[in-house]
Design brief:
Length: about 220
C-alpha cells in the first residue's frame, strides 16, 4: 500500500484510556485519523455512517476502525450503557462494497477492545459483507477482525489503565522493524506478548480472537 494518506482510521474510545496512543500509532503510519471519545449509541451510529461516506476512501488503500467500549461478547454498550447495545457484527456492514463503494476490494481492518460486563449488568433500560468486484471477489473478502475481551472488573481496579492489547498493538506498529512485517506476522508477536501477560497476571486475562479473509500479504508501510 502506497497511498498518502494510507487510508482513514476511525478510533472510537468509549472508555478514554487508549485514544492518544492509538492516534499516535496510526498517524505514524500515515493514516488520516478521526478520533472520537465517550460516545453514546446514537453518536457511534452517526459517526460510522458519516465516516463510511467520506470521499477520502476513493484514493486510499486501506480502512481501519478501532473500537473500545464496555459490552458483552456480541455487543458494545457505549457510554449510555444500554442493553443489549450495538451488535458488533453490524460494524462491518457500514463499510461493505454496497454501502461504501470506494472501499471495494481494499483491506478493512477492525480492532476491538471489549470490556465484558456480567450478564445482569444494566444501568439503562449480523450482516452480509459485499465487497470488491461483486462478480469475482467473495463477499466476505479483505476483512481483518481482531476482537479482544477482558473482564470489566479490570476497569474498576485500575480505571485509567490502557488496554494491554491495544498498547502492545500500538507499540508494534510504531517499532521501525516490526512494522515492516506482514500484518499477520505482527499479530503472531502480539499474541505471544498478550499470552505472556496472561501467564504473569492470572487475575487479568485478555482473550484474543482473530478472523480474517485477507487475500494478500498486507504491509502497513513500505518494506
Amino acid at each position: 500500500m502506497q497511498s498518502k494518506p494510507l487510508g482513514v482510521c476511525l478510533i472510537i474510545d468509549c472508555i478514554g484510556n487508549d485514544a492518544d496512543l492509538l492516534t499516535k500509532a496510526f498517524k505514524s503510519l500515515h493514516f488520516e485519523v478521526h478520533c472520537r471519545r465517550f460516545l453514546n449509541m446514537d453518536a457511534v451510529m452517526h459517526d460510522l455512517y458519516e465516516v463510511a461516506r467520506l470521499r477520502a476512501h476513493k484514493d486510499a488503500d486501506c480502512f481501519v476502525c478501532v473500537l473500545v467500549s464496555r459490552g458483552d461478547h456480541q455487543h458494545i454498550f457505549c457510554t449510555d450503557h444500554s442493553v443489549p447495545g450495538f451488535q458488533l457484527e453490524r460494524l462491518k456492514d457500514f463499510f461493505t462494497g454496497e454501502r461504501c463503494p470506494d472501499l471495494l476490494g481494499k483491506p478493512k481492518l477492525f480492532f476491538i477492545q471489549n470490556y465484558i460486563e456480567p450478564p445482569n449488568w444494566q444501568r439503562n433500560a449480523s450482516l452480509t459483507e459485499a465487497d470488491g468486484d461483486l462478480c469475482t471477489i467473495p463477499q466476505v473478502a479483505d476483512i481483518l477482525w481482531s476482537h479482544c475481551t477482558l473482564d470489566a472488573s479490570a476497569l474498576e481496579r485500575s480505571p485509567c489503565s490502557s488496554s494491554y492489547y491495544l498498547s502492545t498493538l500500538a507499540d508494534l506498529l510504531m517499532d521501525p522493524q516490526k512494522r515492516k512485517l506482514p500484518l499477520l506476522d505482527i499479530f503472531l508477536e502480539l499474541n505471544n506478548r498478550v499470552y505472556e501477560w496472561n501467564r504473569i497476571n492470572p487475575a487479568e486475562q485478555y482473550l484474543l480472537s482473530l478472523k480474517h479473509t485477507l487475500r494478500k500479504k498486507l504491509f502497513l508501510t513500505e518494506k
